[in-house]
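DATA SHEET
Item: assembly model
Revision: 1
Owner: S.N.
Input lines:
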Amino acid sequence: MTTEICAQQMDYRELNAKVRAAVAGGERELVLSQVNGQRYLGVGLTQPVKLSIHGVAGNDLAAFMDGPTLEIWGNAQDGVGNTMNSGRVVIHGSAGDVLGYGMRGGRILVRGDVGYRVGIHMKSFKRQVPTIVVGGSAGDFLGEYMAGGVLVVLNLWKEEKEPVGRWTGTGMHGGAIYLRGGSVSPDRLGREVLAAPAGEEDQPVLFPLLDDFATTFGLEAEELRRQPFQRLTPTSHRPYGNLYAY
Amino acid sequence: MWKKDERIPSGCAISGFINRCGRKESGEAILRSIAAMHERSNGLGGGFAVYGCYPEYAACYAFHLMFESEAARDRVEEFLRRSFVVQGAEPIPTRSVASITDQPLLWRYFLEVRPESLTVGNTFLTEEDFVVAAVMEINAHFDGAYVASSGKNMGVFKGVGYPEEIGRFYRLEEYQGYLWTAHGRFPTNTPGWWGGAHPFALLDWSVVHNGEISSYGINKRYLEGHGYLCRLGTDTEVIAYLFDLFQRRHGLPLSATCLALAAPFWSEIDRLPPEEATIARAVRMVYGSGLLNGPFSIIVANRSGMIGLNDRIKLRPMVVAERGETVYMASEEAAIREICPSVDRLWYARGGEPVVAAMMPLGAEAEAEVA
């Protein structure tokens, strides 16, 4: 059984209340149609439910989410996956700014582009390793203050000259960023990152993510695996350790 | 007015659209658009700008005024009769909306400048200079009187309330315009009062703004040196005056004005091609006091078009879409989809890069259709 909710002209509180009530009643699959900007979808849900969202998902989609799978047939606005703990978000369109802020687990796959400040302050601990894969390009401040997890930017669709904006990885002190392509301009990168061609040692991390992205969006996994990637890693795990110690 | 039991998730809302061929529509669409972002406002300010709404008075400066008392109205009307030829004067039509209270007296005047007013001793003013001086005079020196707008064939309708309530209050469905902008306010540093709601306007410039202008003090002092008096208590006021100063009085190209307001960082300028770098350096040096610091996304309009601009590091959102000859800009995509579900193209504005939607020259539409 699947519960379908038409969200047309529905206030976000009412919509989220209906979702929570259905989940509390045992429903494990929901389809939300005619969504247009309603906020906080999937927020705080901890059950292994599946939500299909048709339309424009509003701000703070999947914030603090812990377990569910969300699939968005359209674009998502700002703040997707804020402090998300586990679960999976698949966005067939593009997403706005600050996606994956402080994310601590789970996976976000975006077929299109993402905005500014994506993956800032992502973190990881033991088996909690958040991952974000972007099919298009990303704006400025990607992975700023990143402390853990993995960010991948594929730049597949428009072949932008640069896959990422300015200040990428500024203040980064953990985790890894992979950018498809042979090189990235040094002026796009923060002072705290080291760029190097990805090699065999990166495959155990990178390939499962590429395979997942390819399967999810119907692409050739082998083709993605053959692409050259740059790896960005922090030069130090404590870049500001001496900031106040002079 | 202040709903204490409601959680407020913050952030102002802006929205606007322009039909580049001048086709007009009523205020219903912009109302629906801004209402789609209800959560971004907190009921302490809403407002709209509309262009093309007074064709019967197209040659007159349409002054929208807010008065705290009949005495203030008397004083200002005496001043207006002395300074202008008053072609029309009437209360702005409103309807009763339960949540809108404490409204000031709202009047509009259709004014012509007397040619002889433009010569003062050996000084010759333009009509626009004369109108700007009159607006400054009223805002600064007439207690309890504030000019909401002063342009030709346009008007600003604003007040304290949620924008959709303010729109109903002013009966905006009765107006027709080819360009509409709207604002839902969440005041942070300054009080929510009728004169402090957006849009801010001077002549036919209008500005709606999400964010805050940290450089307000520098901008204000700079503008005061050029005769602009900031008396409305909201930082956004300086943006309207900077556009008037740079575009109308200094005759800067729009690209240079935007370079001044959202200048690239020096490190970015160093990487530009030599000719562009020379221009960017010159603009930063000459117009440094016009640089807007702090987070902002703004929609600026006048009779010939609509401009969207974000701060250099894009600390506020802006989505842009196009459908036929109409261009939409808004804080959230939902505000655009609400009134235009299927767009030809949708994109996210980048920090410091203006998005310009200009009116098409007359006849362009016919040519386009032929092609």
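QC remark: Residues 127-141 of chain B form the longest helix (15 residues).
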